[in-house]
Design brief:
- There is one protein chain.
- This protein is mainly alpha-helical.
- Helix content is about 50%, strand content about 5%.
- The protein is built from 7 helices and 2 strands; from the N terminus they run αααββαααα.
- It has a two-stranded antiparallel ribbon.
- α1 packs across α3 (about 40-50), α1 packs across α4 and α2 crosses α3.
- The longest helix has 16 residues, at about 105-120.
Length: about 140
């Protein structure tokens, strides 16, 4: 399974904001730290704000900060909110499924179980697990 760039950038943006411990952060700072597109990050930040993960402060001196404590931001929740779908194979979507072996095939059940396990692991972790008490991460991100 592979995450979209959108989800990847969402997690990285949240990690950067988390290591700033409540300070306002600009999109440009994050783009510079990671070497990624400011335009892409603007879209990500907007959506994360709409979904309640980031607080956006407009105007001169504005920026972003976490809308809730990092220990209240679950990784599984973030990925569920940022990925469009988890259709791993054709038979996951009954509307477009034309697979000739869907009836007797057991692959769908196995992959469904694997996807549940994937989220079970992600649901054990929060943003605080990634970014909290991580001075090396802070040094790497904040020197950029």
């Amino acid at each position: 399974m592979r995450l979209t760039f959108y989800s990847d950038y969402s997690l990285r943006l949240l990690m950067y904001v988390a290591v700033r411990h409540g300070e306002l952060v600009t999109i440009q700072e994050v783009a510079d730290a990671y070497g990624i597109s400011k335009n892409h990050l603007m879209k990500v930040a907007f959506q994360l704000g709409r979904k309640g993960y980031l607080e956006t402060v407009r105007g001169r001196g504005g920026g972003l900060r976490l809308a809730r404590p990092p220990e209240k931001i679950g990784l599984g929740d973030v990925l569920r909110a940022t990925e469009e779908d988890f259709t791993m194979v054709e038979c996951f979507d009954p509307k477009s499924n034309t697979c000739a072996i869907s009836g007797p095939c057991r692959l769908r059940g196995v992959l469904s179980k694997a996807l549940q396990a994937y989220f079970a692991v992600l649901d054990e972790y929060t943003l605080a697990d990634l970014a909290g008490q991580n001075p090396v991460l802070e040094r790497v991100l904040l020197r950029a």
